[in-house]
Structure formats: structure tokens, C-alpha cells
Specification:
alpha/beta, Histidine-containing Protein, Chain: A, Glucose Oxidase, domain 1, 5 domains, about 40% helix, about 15% strand, phosphoprotein
């Protein structure tokens, strides 16, 4: 007899490495054999091998049959059934925006240079200029040819294999202990390949055919890669690079440097690496200080190398066959990760363009980071705390380095997951205390463990449910796992002796749950007092607002909770009864819905009437569209990813609180999502206070420009740095639209480019005296007055200034005064008198 389980795959990426790893680890605790069969493909594999499971090509909605045979088959089938109910939580999430293909838009200032470029696909954005470094990529076919040939006895070959596997395993385990984030996940996946029983079994099978271990390893890896390459899923195909990576590393451990030198790239100058592919192992060994960018012909956007490149912000492209290109060896090439293109032989104008682009981006980044320690506030002084969402000490360090004013959400359940037993009190206390000390007086909100639903933990016997998001999770599990809950509260209380630690309870749906949690907290406090253990007596306990029922129970809950924080993702999901991961209902999951936004304003108003502080955690708080709304609604704190913190703090300084409030009034009165989006397209939320049309910062008396295009771009970029435009590319396009109609040179060496645009926040006159004249249409120009007028200005404002300037330029005395002004201050004073601004 045997147990048969039927399963329909719910994972959009299919059964990939992470869920397959969980299946493998569970099945290896059984005595029974477990066979996974995909009924669509007819492929089956040993479920005790992650590679074998992935090789069945199980995709979204595929029906699978799992057969369990052996002495413990009944118990095994129960545990396996539970795991299948949790597999959706192992879905790998990707930053689609980070690797989105270009939409075909090319800025007019770049088109003007008539670039000879090769279009590729964006993996990671950014710009790089450096000489190319061509890296020869090893393939499994190459490895087969490089077999050293010598062979020992079967016993000696097997011993060599086992020693190599153990050596590589120890190396990976050591690396795993010192890694975090994306790098940690990838090393874990590689460790899974090393210990995979099917991979090891196939190698052993080939060894029995009187071959050496080199050939056995390469043949076993080739077999798995051939199967993976047959998948219709690009994501699964991209795992072949990981198999190749481990194969190369394993052969290196067994045969040593003499036969297969370990590939560490020694870089001593900035380079752009060009390779057919680059394994994650080789990438991790590169000195990133000199890695300017990468062009990888055959590396997919979801390969582990691509994920690493994005996590480190290294400009990277794929889908470019550089083998047919005439590439220089010592001269620089350019890659534009934002536009997904490579320029193999840039001319001097192109190099000037991108050198300037790099400088401008660095300047803006420096400005954003310069004031990270300044408290976040709008231009009119309305303060709002900008905090970070974290899950580890490493992320805490990054958050405070980026200017976070606290931790709005510490996802503590991460310490409970991916392990066989719960963490100890000592572990949690040490971690929480280090984070609180790192905060140096800033608040750290610890969300108590949110386990169940999409975050299963194997050592807790939480039964599989038809809809775990609406089931037994978070606070609902605490009475059953009371000792675990009390232990975590004790750890947070102990950490509170070192600073401002706070407690937040997830998935609260009623006042009774809050009262119960408060009573448990008081019990733990009494126990610690009796043991004379230090803690913060007035520690705050708040509620995470995810369940809509809380919105209508604020007065009674507020009697027992010190603060509230909206979990935007789950609240949206429960508000619309729409699974946020289900593409079939993604249009229902709508943050732009007027009903949802009215609910957000309602809850913020309710909290303040109750005298309570309210925050919001989630990336929704950091988006350009919703940031002014949450400010206008009166949220006291916005908590987001580390990277978003300095950008949002910087953006806040240009906003006007009263205008944000007015925007909220209009948005909640909207009758449709389309109306909301229209209102948020060009919202009037920027401060308009004392922004003169002319300022000394817009006078450049020695502009280095090689042509008209460069003049317009540099003046527009200066407007961006001075916060006069939030879309410099589109503003350039608007200026060029007039230039294309009729060049704006007016004679005597002067030009007056001008536009009335939606993309200028404050009408501005920019002035530049050029180091060397440029051709403007058919005239030589050495002095430029650029008029960028907001469409909100009067109908004739831009023509008023244009006409005044054109008339003055007919006066030789005025022209000479401008030409002879040797400083920007003198130039500024003369123009102010002339234009009366």
C-alpha cells in the first residue's frame, strides 16, 4: 500500500529552488520513498532531491501526484499535506520594476547625439563608463573537454568525491554564517545542490561505469541542466547557471588549482565585464570597488547573478550579443542600465553626455544623503517621522545609516523561520538589545511573531487551512503557543532597558484580543519584577491595523492600546477580499480606489480623536502618488524600506502640508479610480513660497558645453538639482519641441530657448555665458537666456520675458554690459535691473 496526494501548483513561478528545498528537507526526515509526478509533463522525480523536483517542470496550475510508500507513509502523508498547504508562502518575489524592459522612450537630448547603440534588456539600472573586460565563460561542454583524464581505483575516485563534497559544503556553511539578505539566500540554494541526494546519486552511478570523478560530475550536471532547459519557465531554466557554478567549484575542490584554477577576478581599475554568463560564485568573488557594470549575453533577469547585481546597484544588461561587435580593448564603452542599451564606440560628445550624467546623479544623491540626520518635515514645518521596516541587525544598521528616525516595523518572525527549533530567549534578547542600542534613543517597534498564513513554521503544528490568510495566524495562535509569546515579550522587555523598545501585536480583530495581550504583558512584567530583571515600565503596546473591523472599534481598543500602525498590504487585501498575490483579481486589489482612501482618512481621523499616534508600514507610504496623501491625512509616521528613507525625507521638504490636505479633500470626493489617478498625475502639493523667477544659482558664467544640446541639458539638469523640475528629461523634450519648430538664436551671439511646460515646478530664468561659442541653428551663440515657465503661470508670462529680452538685445549697450560682466554676481544684478524681477 501507499499514500497518494494530489496537488495543484499555486506558485506563479512554479516549483523553483526555495519551495523545492523545503520539500526536500521534509522528505529526508521520512523513511518512506516519496515520488513527485507532474501529470502535465509526465515527468517524475525523487522528492528527497530538490533538483529532481525542479526537473519535473512543475508550473503554475500544474496537477501533481505525490506517492509516499514505506513504513511511515501515513504520518509522512499528513506532514507532506501540511507543507503543500504552505507552499504558496515560498513564492519568490521579484522587483519587476527594477528589471523592466525599456518602454522605447529615448530622451530628446540623447537622440540629438544620434547614438549608435545596441539595445539589450535591463537587469539593473544606472550608468557606467569604463573599458570592457571580456571574460570567457566556462560551459559544461568546456569542462568535459578539459577532463585531466587520469583515473584511480573506484574506491579512490569515490573517496575523492566525498572529500570534495564535504570540503565545499564546509566552505558554503562558513559563508552562510557570515552572509545576509540576497547573498545568504543564494548560498543556501547552492548548499542545497551540494547536498542533493539525486545529484550525488547520479555522480555515483557514473563512477560505477569505470570513469573518473571529473567526468562523473560533469555528466551528472549535464543531465540535470538538459532537463531544466526543457522547461517552458525561464525562471527554472535560469537555475542551470547555479548547477554549472557548483560543478566548477566542486571540481576545483577535488582537483586543485593546478588542474582548474579557482576563478577570482583580480580587478585593479574600473571595468565593464562582458561575458556570456557569470556564475554567482564568480560574481561574489569580484572586487566590487572596480566593477562599474556588466553585459551578460545569456544571463536571465531572474538568475541569481542578476538578483545580486540589482541588490548592489551595479548597472547590468542582458540579451546583447557582443561577439559580433567591434569592441575596443582599452577605450571606454558606455552602458545605460535605465534605457537598456550599450554604446560600443562612443564619440566624444557621447562620453561628455554620460560623464555629466554620472556627475549629476552623484550630486543629487549626495544632496539627498547630506541632510539625512535632519528630522523629516514639510516646507511649512509639519513634522512626520520617517522610519524603516527591517528584519535583521544588518538591515537596522543600513536603516539608521540612511537617516531612519526609528524602526516602524521589526518583522520578528524571521528569527523563527527556516530552522528546526524555536529561537532561545537568549538569542532574541541579544538581537533585540543590539538593535535598540543601535537606535540610540529612537523608537524600535517590534511586531510580535506573525506566524501562520503566508509565514509557516515547520516546528509549530499549525494545521493546513483552505484560506490561511483568514485563518489561524499571528495573535490568534498566541493562546496555544503562550510560552513562545511570553518568551518573546520577555526578550522585548529586556531590550527596552537599553532604549525605546515598543511592542506591536499583528492581526488584531477585536478589543478582547488587545485586552488579553495586555494582561499577558502585565504578567510577564510582574515575573520580571519579581526576578529583579530590568525593563522599561512604561513600554508602549500598540496594534497593527490590518483587519477592517478595528476601524470601527477604535474608541474601545484605544483604551488598551498606546498606538496604531496600518499594515497597508494586508488591510487592502482584507478590505477588498482580494488575494494580493492572485493575478486574476489584481484589478480588485486597488489602492487608488476612492473607497479605500476614504477608509484610510477615516481611520487616521478616528485615531487622532482618540488621542492616539498612527503610522503606516509598507512601500505604499514611499510611493510618489501616495506620499502627499498620507501626509495630508495626518499620519504621524511612515515606515518603509531602508533605501526609500532618504529619498522620502528629501521629497518631503518640497511639499506643503496645507496643499497635501487639499489634495486629500479632492481625492476622497472622487467617484472612481480613474479620477483619483488623474488628480495624482500632477498634484499641486509643492511649496510655492518665495521662489523668485531668477536666482544667483541659475546664473552660470563659464558653462562648458560643446553644442546646443549640451547647453540645454546642463541648464535643465541644474533646474533639477535646484528642485525647479521633477522631470528633467520631459522638460528638455518641451524645450526641444520649440527648437525643432524654429531655432531660438536671436542674433548678436544670443539665444533664448523657452517653453511653457507642465514639468517646471517654479517658473525660472536660467542664464549661461559659454566658455566657447556653439552653433545654434545656423548662428554662433555664446550667451543663453533660457525661459522655463510653469503652465500655471499667466497666459502671457513667457512671452512677456521673451519680448523684453529680445527688445533689450537690440540695444548694443545692453549687449556689451552682458558680454563684459566678468562674474555671475555682476551678470545677475544687470539682468535683475533689466527684467525688474
Amino acid at each position: 500500500m501507499s499514500e497518494l496526494i494530489t496537488y495543484q501548483c499555486e506558485l506563479k513561478e512554479g516549483i523553483h529552488a526555495r519551495p523545492a528545498g523545503h520539500i526536500e528537507r521534509l522528505c529526508n526526515t521520512f523513511q518512506s520513498e516519496v515520488v513527485w509526478k507532474n501529470t502535465r509533463t509526465g515527468l517524475q522525480g525523487n522528492a528527497k532531491s530538490a533538483l529532481s523536483i525542479v526537473a519535473t517542470d512543475t508550473l503554475f496550475n500544474d496537477e501533481c501526484q505525490i506517492t509516499i510508500s514505506g513504513d511511515d507513509e501515513f504520518d509522512a502523508s499528513l506532514q507532506f499535506g501540511e507543507l503543500l498547504g504552505k507552499l504558496a508562502s515560498f513564492e519568490t518575489t521579484h522587483n519587476d520594476e527594477a528589471c523592466a524592459a525599456p518602454d522605447g522612450y529615448l530622451p530628446r537630448s540623447l537622440r540629438e547625439l544620434r547614438a549608435d547603440y545596441v539595445q539589450g534588456t535591463r537587469i539593473s539600472g544606472g550608468v557606467a563608463i569604463a573599458r570592457p573586460l571580456l571574460i570567457q565563460s566556462l560551459s559544461l561542454a568546456d569542462l568535459s573537454v578539459r577532463n585531466p583524464g587520469f583515473i584511480d581505483t573506484p574506491a579512490q575516485e569515490k573517496a575523492r568525491l566525498l572529500d570534495g563534497l564535504e570540503s565545499l559544503k564546509r566552505e558554503k556553511e562558513a559563508s552562510l554564517a557570515n552572509s545576509s539578505g540576497v547573498e545568504h539566500d543564494i548560498i543556501q540554494a547552492h548548499l542545497s545542490i551540494i547536498t542533493d541526494i539525486a545529484f550525488q546519486g547520479n555522480i555515483a552511478q557514473y563512477l560505477s561505469e569505470n570513469t573518473n570523478v571529473w567526468a562523473a560530475i560533469v555528466r551528472a550536471a549535464t543531465d540535470f541542466c538538459d532537463i531544466l532547459n526543457q522547461s517552458s519557465s525561464k525562471y527554472i531554466k535560469e537555475r542551470t547557471l547555479d548547477v554549472l557554478d557548483i560543478t566548477v567549484q566542486l571540481l576545483g575542490h577535488i582537483y586543485g588549482e593546478d588542474v582548474l584554477p579557482r576563478s577570482s577576478l583580480e580587478l585593479h581599475e574600473p571595468v565593464i565585464i562582458l561575458a556570456n554568463n557569470l556564475t554567482p560564485g564568480k560574481f561574489l568573488g569580484i572586487n566590487k570597488a572596480y566593477l562599474a557594470g556588466m553585459v551578460l549575453t545569456a544571463t536571465g533577469k531572474m538568475s541569481h547573478t542578476a538578483i545580486l547585481a540589482r541588490s548592489l546597484g551595479i548597472p547590468t544588461l542582458t540579451d546583447i550579443d557582443f561577439s559580433a561587435l567591434d569592441l575596443p580593448s582599452r577605450e571606454a564603452i558606455v552602458i545605460d542600465g535605465d534605457l537598456g542599451m550599450m554604446i560600443a564606440r562612443p564619440d566624444e560628445n557621447m562620453l561628455r553626455y554620460y560623464r555629466h550624467e554620472i556627475v549629476i546623479r552623484q550630486t543629487m544623491q549626495q544632496e539627498i544623503l547630506a541632510d539625512i540626520s535632519t528630522p523629516a518635515a514639510t516646507s511649512d514645518g509639519h513634522e512626520i517621522a520617517i522610519a524603516a521596516n527591517i528584519a535583521s541587525l544588518t538591515e537596522a544598521e543600513a536603516a539608521f545609516s540612511n537617516g531612519a528616525e526609528g524602526v516602524g516595523l521589526f518583522r520578528t518572525e524571521m528569527s523563527f523561520m527556516d530552522r528546526e527549533t524555536p529561537p532561545t530567549l537568549e538569542e532574541l534578547t541579544a538581537l533585540y538589545t543590539r538593535v535598540v542600542r543601535l537606535a540610540d534613543g529612537k523608537p524600535v517597534i517590534f511586531r510580535t511573531f506573525d506566524i501562520g498564513g503566508d509565514k509557516p513554521v515547520d516546528y509549530l503544528s499549525i494545521v493546513v487551512e483552505a484560506n490561511p490568510f483568514l485563518g489561524y495566524r499571528a495573535v490568534r495562535t498566541y493562546p496555544r503557543y503562550l510560552d513562545l509569546f511570553k518568551m518573546q515579550l520577555r526578550a522585548i522587555l529586556s531590550a527596552s532597558a537599553a532604549g525605546d523598545a515598543r511592542i506591536m501585536i499583528p492581526m488584531i480583530a477585536s478589543v478582547d484580543e488587545v485586552i488579553w495581550c495586555r494582561e499577558v504583558l502585565q504578567t510577564v512584567q510582574q515575573e520580571m519584577s519579581a526576578a529583579r530583571l530590568p525593563y522599561r515600565e512604561n513600554i508602549e503596546m500598540g496594534v497593527m491595523l490590518e483587519v477592517p473591523s478595528v476601524m470601527f472599534a477604535v474608541p474601545e481598543i484605544a483604551e488598551h492600546a498606546d498606538f496604531f500602525s496600518v499594515g497597508s498590504n494586508d488591510l487592502t487585501q482584507y478590505f477588498f477580499a482580494a488575494d494580493r498575490g492572485n493575478t486574476q483579481v489584481e484589478s480588485v486589489y486597488d489602492n487608488y480606489s476612492p473607497a479605500f482612501l476614504r477608509a484610510m482618512k477615516f481611520v487616521a481621523d478616528q485615531m487622532h480623536r482618540a488621542g492616539k499616534w498612527i503610522g503606516i508600514c509598507g512601500e505604499l507610504a514611499a510611493t510618489n502618488d501616495f506620499l502627499p496623501l498620507f501626509i495630508g491625512m495626518g499620519f504621524d509616521e511612515l515606515s518603509m524600506s531602508n533605501a526609500a528613507v532618504p529619498v522620502v525625507k528629501h521629497a518631503l521638504r518640497d511639499m506643503d502640508y496645507e496643499k497635501c490636505q487639499a489634495l486629500v479633500t479632492n481625492v476622497v470626493a472622487a467617484k472612481s479610480t480613474a479620477q483619483v489617478k488623474a488628480l495624482l498625475d500632477h498634484p499641486d502639493v509643492k511649496a510655492k513660497t518665495s521662489k523668485p523667477i531668477l536666482g544667483r544659482e541659475f546664473i552660470i558664467d563659464n558653462l562648458d558645453a560643446a553644442n546646443r544640446n549640451e547647453v540645454i541639458k546642463k541648464l535643465t539638469d541644474n533646474l533639477w538639482l535646484r528642485h525647479r523640475t521633477d522631470n528633467r528629461e520631459k522638460l528638455c523634450d518641451d524645450l526641444w519641441a520649440r527648437e525643432d519648430t524654429f531655432p531660438t538664436a536671436v542674433g548678436f551671439g544670443f539665444a533664448i530657448p523657452h517653453t511653457k511646460s507642465d514639468h517646471i515646478l517654479h517658473s525660472t530664468i536660467s542664464v549661461a555665458k559659454l566658455i566657447s561659442p556653439v552653433i545654434w541653428g545656423e548662428q554662433q551663440v555664446d550667451t543663453v537666456f533660457m525661459l522655463t515657465i510653469s503652465k500655471s503661470a499667466g497666459n502671457n508670462e513667457h512671452m512677456k520675458y521673451f519680448s523684453t529680452l529680445a527688445r533689450k538685445l537690440m540695444n548694443e549697450e545692453f549687449r556689451n554690459e552682458i558680454k563684459n560682466s566678468v562674474t555671475s554676481e555682476a551678470l545677475y544684478n544687470r539682468i535683475v535691473r533689466t527684467l525688474e524681477v
